[in-house]
Fold these 3 entries.
Entry 1:
Amino acid sequence: MSIKTAFLTVFLGCLCWPASAQPAPATGSVIEGDVVDGDTGQGIPGARVSLGTEEDGPWFTSTDGAGHFRFTGLAKKGYQIAARQIGFMPPEGSPSSFGGSRRVQAGQAEPVRIELIRYAVIAGIVTDSSGEPISTAQISVLRKAPVEARVMQRPERRLADGRNRLETVGRTYTDQRGAYRVVRLRPGAYYVQAEPRHSGMPSDDRTARATYYGGALDLGGAKPIEATAGNTFANINVEILKRPGVRVSGRIVAPAVQEGRASSEPVFTSISLSSLSGESGNTNGPYASANGDRFEIQDVLPGRYTIEAVTHQRNGRPEAREELAGSIQTIEVDQTDLTGLTVALQPPRDLPGIVRLDERCHSGKVRLTVSRFGLRDVAVNPDGSFVVKNLLPSRQWLSASIEGDEFATLGAVRLGGRESEGGFMMQGEDYGPLSVDIVCPRGSVSGEVRDASGAPAEGALIALVSTVEPGDRRLVRIDQAGGRFDIPVRPGVYNVFACSGTNGQPSLSRDCQKGPGPVTIKDGTNSPVALTLPVGRPKEGSK
């Protein structure tokens, strides 16, 4: 069974288990808790809660007007629990973010807390230039997301800053009316792209292009949609633009070492274009394979590109292929065919460099990683010098960290007189050195926490949750007298919670209290905030 099929089975099962499901026994242990709105901290009434194991259940109940639920008569063992409500979804980073469930123990002293958030909806119509609806157009809902080191080995739609990428969070197709609707979107800024579906027949109109909402062919001219929780954003209509493409062709010149290789060794050269227009750096562009020493790429839109050629030895899996020679250069494509290009391949070579640390960074072991399609760790000497071995002329991306300094991040990168962010482009004349700056920006949030009676809340837990990446959570126990705290944190925008419970899960109405609005943390500055702990929920049997 595929992952997609398994997910669908679980999801539908959670929604549609039959009424004949086993009734819970009358005696035994208890599992109870609350289903809450992660944004407001209020209980969600009428939410459908399911409980079961592979052997027993499933059993169902609904939350009361305060969002509380209770299962009784259970065997004292572990169960899987999940909650559903129309208009809500699990928050990013929670155990059930992908529609699954979480494990709980019957008879546990601490009530179960299930957090859901309201989702946004984006809808609209796709038409051609005459206003006629286009059916079966593919709709992609995209957002900017930070590049993470652990996924850098996969080809990504990086933006020009090298630090962010385009992430697809929703996809669907238009119906016969040209209409589409994408649901279960978390609050945030999104881009909508509509792409006409071609049948592969000669009669297809190849001039019809993938178009962003806002009437643009690249992200630089696209209009973002600021989706907010619980709202439907209709009339996000896209008119498919038509633009003819041109031909880019030329000759490949192999280095002497390549010409001297035995002809029996299988090699091939691939040519690819990456757009540099607007913000869409390194997006997937047209590509082709060389035919002898000639290449030709069809249907290229006007714009600014990098053209990259790589000669591989054809042996085994793609990631195991040996790169023998390469080339990269920047070209401008206009309304006419671009012919007569010369692409001069060069063999790999070593690139020396130096790492420079910001004065606020800790003196620890530096880790530098170079990435194009796969990750390569680079050894950095105590004096900051390093050498990247066997590097082809190409565009490379970097990540940097310092052992013991959580705030360390990559700063400016310089090569061949050019400064960039997130990486570098090594062309034929670039022999180094490569200069890499590591910076350690940090701000802080401080304040005090008091309980409902006004007394200092010593031992409370402070939770900082990024408004950009909700899965980015920082939890700190207050250990200062008087309930005061001072927490260093990366610059950004955070929601701040004071938690009296031990689970440290923010946004839970009876354990945590959210501060007054998001707090913006700037580099080198302190942001004060005052918090009050919520009144604790009475124990069972008390009044």
Note: Residues 458 and 483 are 4 Å apart (CA to CA).
Entry 2:
Amino acid sequence: MALFILGSLALSAQAARVTLEAAVKPYNASTSSWFVHSQPASDTLIKITTVLGLNADRRALLERTLFAVSDPTNSEYGNHKSAEEIAEILAVPKAQLERVVNFWKLNGAAAVEVHPTKDTLTVAISVANVERALSTRLATFSHANSPAHIVRATQSYSLPADIAADVAMVGELHQFPSPRILPRSTTAELVESTASWPNTCKASACANAVTPSVLASRYSIPSSKSSVNGNSMAVAEFQGQFYKPDDLKLFKSDCGSDVSVDNQIGTERDSAGVEAELDIEYIKAVAEGVPLTVVYDASYSLLSWINQVTALSSPPLVNSVSYGNDEAQQSSTEYMQSCNTAFMKAGTMGLSVLFASGDQGVCGREGCGFFKKKYHPDFPAASPYITAVGGTDFATAGVIGDEKAWSDGGGGMSDTFDVPSYQADAVAGYLSDPDADLPDSKYYNSKGRGYPDIAALAGTQNPYCVATGGRFGGVGGTSAACPVAAGIFARLNGVRLAKGGKPLGFLNPFLYQNPSAFNDVKLGKITGGTAGGFKAIKGYDLATGLGTPDYAKLAKLV
């Protein structure tokens, strides 16, 4: 049986239909904290993603190809594949694709877009036609902590049995985002420590905060612009988070870094937020000169976002995402596997994808609970096919030097995905090291994928100085660490491209083969209330991964 077709299938009340995503309890309309706001008009157009079932051997071939082109010790290293070549690897039968396309057309789809890799469809269709085609009901949902509205299903969905055999899942139906806990922000009063570094930004609110010059000093980042033909990077934004050009101009005038956006995909009108402006200001300050694209996905879907990126004719080479939920909050294992396949495609194409590891320690957004104390790993941070970025503080507040694990930084081990080969030795070493002083193994899956892979400054004892809302304020979180790390790897891509080389692509095999290129973080611990947590120790650990990047050392290796 194909690994990725349906997992387990459950017959619905209609004998000729099959309910999808029925293998696990979904984080859906009945279990999420979103509530029904209203009923959308029947002719309202929405976009949904249809993922086709894949042959298990073909999906395994994609994984092997990803690891081959991403492993510096492999003769295929850097031999990235085009979307058309990936389509040949996955080899979705033409008849299967045509059946699903025709199903949507016969059910009134306004448009059906086939992804270049031929395994995913983006369908524009009215609410009434979705409800009829999938035998479900839709509603417009709201959340107490979000100004946005989203259209989702209020119940399970099903397909005719003959079509269900061709489909893995339909996205944007059960996927309810956890409203983003914004970076710790936005007033100067948060900046309390006395820093030993000079304020290279004019704003007084930046006096004790992390600025581009602080990052350059700690991570050996050159002050020159990184301008190499063919280089590119992007940040992803969701949940109404966008930016105002005037805030970016303010950052440039006060801090001296041109952080303007070069390209934009999607628009959140009349909206700006500290999350987006943090992402933009610091990825661009670190990698000034590298063209930056902002990708806004109005559907609140990681799957929609990554498919949107990989469908571009020239996708950004480095992608930074400060977004995620707990694994337990995902609608199904099929959904996570669909995302993983999309991440594999991105890496095979030569794209680097970095995700923030989260800001809730080991407990995630659901919390550990008072009695069970079960850890809740993050997704996509715990995906084996992306690079997860954790958080640090300076060991001594206000002193540029050694770092310690930020106590709220996300980390741990996946409950869903096994430890991948590229990190197996590192994870085993940490779990067997007496200095790790591990928590009780009943709280986490000791055989799971470990995260984060690397880390960067994120804590609030010396927060980042961000221009937002027409002023400067202090901001902290792994949402700051991720774009900084992404900017460093965008610069490193420039080094490779300038020599006629290929982009780094999926980073993790390279990272784990070069631990000496990182500042080892040996202090601190990520926590989870009363549930313990993971210590930072010498070498790799589940608090800060391999450590924080040293650009000068990495530049000699790429």
Note: The first strand starts at residue 10 and ends at 11.
Entry 3:
Amino acid sequence: MPYISPDNWLRYVDRSLDQIMQSLLSTFGALVPEITDHTVNNPYVRDLMHFAGMTEQLGYYIDNAAREHFIDHARLYSTGISLSKLLDYRVVGAVPYGVNVKFVLNQANNTGLGIVIPAGIPVATEDGTITYTTTSSTTIPVGATSSPDVPALQYKTRMHSLGNSTGLPDQEFVIPEVAPIKVAHNSAVVLVNGVPWTLQDTLAYSLPTDNHFVQDINEDRDTVIYFGNGFPYGKIPPTGQAITVSVQQTLGSEGYVGANELTNILTSIILPPGFTVTVDNAFQATGGADSEDLESIKRHLPASFRIMRRAVTRRDYKDAAEQVAGVARAGVYFSCGKSVEIYVVPVGGGLASTSLLGGVFTFMDEYRKMITTKIDVFSAGEALIHINAAVNIRPNYVNATVLAELQDDVAEFYSYLHQEIKGKIVIGDVYEIIENHEAVINSVVTNWYIEPVPRPSTTGLPTFLWAFNSVSAALTAVERWRIVFVTANTFYIIRNSTTLGIHNTGVLIVLPGISFTVLPNGYSSGNTYEFATYPFNAGTIQLVEPNLPVALQANVKLTVTGGM
């Protein structure tokens, strides 16, 4: 019998049952040429097949284990957590929704002094099921009836006792999540024996004498508080000392409220005699999310490792801003590194809240930007795409069903997850989306345009409120507009370089190609807002502003004929 090396039975590339059987039978035939029946009727071949089946199964597990070592191919959340720890990336925990609220008096402030509304006021929906907390104080000026916008986040503060320190290195304490309550990212305030310790993004730069800790997420998505090892990364809490933590508990993705839903003040506010106060939110909440999932870790972990905690290039600033909890997309205006404007889109889309903008600024200004670089952070506008189309479908399809599916397809393509700030939209994409549906025979896009998005010229201005009415075919080129306030209720409109007169808030303004009404909102002289308009029904539209092109399902209006 000829000698056959054990290595020749199988090749390392043999993975499927058929490949393994072919290699085995080839060697088997060389070893025992007198056995010519290589079908499953032969008991020897059946034994080989059993071996091949087990080998294929082992190969499957080996391949899966190898795959989990590469973040791009990982399938397990635990892998994302393990690789994040290996590369010192901090997985983002739950993010509270943010919203701006306004406090309104029952009469104008005639006290001669500003009326202060302190921070930390809990406000809730009418039924009290969802609570937000204001994060800064505000003052209602003399003569005014309402406060400026006040940022609020969806959370309640809770205290937990974590037990006593064992005095060992690398201590971890878990705060389990009880659905739907979650612990907000980087919200922990830790006391060791009554002494506050400082939250850090990493212990890599902590000295053995530094009272530092880190808030992280484990593979069960529970919040973990961990301390250093004494040398060289952070101080170990002394043996027996009590460890307590205060955290912000949030509903994460389930904490959403729409406009005008926060109307309930849950605590008393000290006011001068004769005054009462109410609260309201003019816009929907944005930015809330649950802890980072595996797909998000796959996007952010390599970028975090690449920039190594320092933003230098335009891409660095974009990648760094997108690591901030609550940010889905970021765009950057970059001027040789001396000044950087960052525009962000919150998780879930819409306009970024004041709290989120402040979080991005702090993150970039304190931890990421190069020295001497000036940072400004703005909310990217949401440039709403309006689409009208006539669609002809095959006779054996239900019109209403096809209509809903096409609206979903278009809105999904033009969602905040799939578009870029200052991006380009092409009418051919609309045709492709619609006519890729199996029911569609043909289609004609009758109208499509972008709704203008006014944005403040600088930070700190009141939110611009308007009732947009329409644009028309009179818009044939990209044009830039400015609205400059003279008083709280009067303003100039400037189109390109031409002034189009002075106008009043609350009055419908009809101009060539566009009509709208500016609503009062406590503007001051000099407040300036800018927007652009784009050609009506253009084949391609390249945005010239830091806006994100988005098509909401309600703005995709299709007329479906044929079918049944």
Note: The two ends are 75 Å apart (CA to CA).
